[in-house]
Amino acid sequence: MSLLLLENIDTLATFDEQRKVLKNAWLLINNNTIEAIGTGKYEGKSVNQRLDLNSHVVLPGLVNLHHHFFQALLRNIPTLQDVDLFPWLRDMYLLKSEVRDEELDVATRVNIAELLLSGCTTTVDHNYLCPSADLHHDTAIKAAAEMGIRYHHARGSHSLGQKDIALLSNDLLENEDNILIDTERLIKTYHDPEFGGMTRIENAPSAPFSVTKRVFIESIEMARRYGVGNHTHLAQSTDDANFMKQTFGMSSVEWAQELGWVGPDVWYAHATSIDDQEIAIIKRTSTGISHCPNSNMYTAANVCRVAPMLREGGIKIGLGVDGSAANNSSHMLREARNALLMQRAFFGADAISPTQALEIAILGGAMVLRRDDIGVLAPGKTADLIGVDLRKLSFAGGIHDPVAALIFCEVDKVDLSIVNGKIRVANGELIGVDLPSLIQRGNELAVNLVKRTEKRFGVALTNPVWRRAYPYDAR
Question: Which residue has the higher pLDDT, 78 or 172?
Answer without folding.
Answer: 78
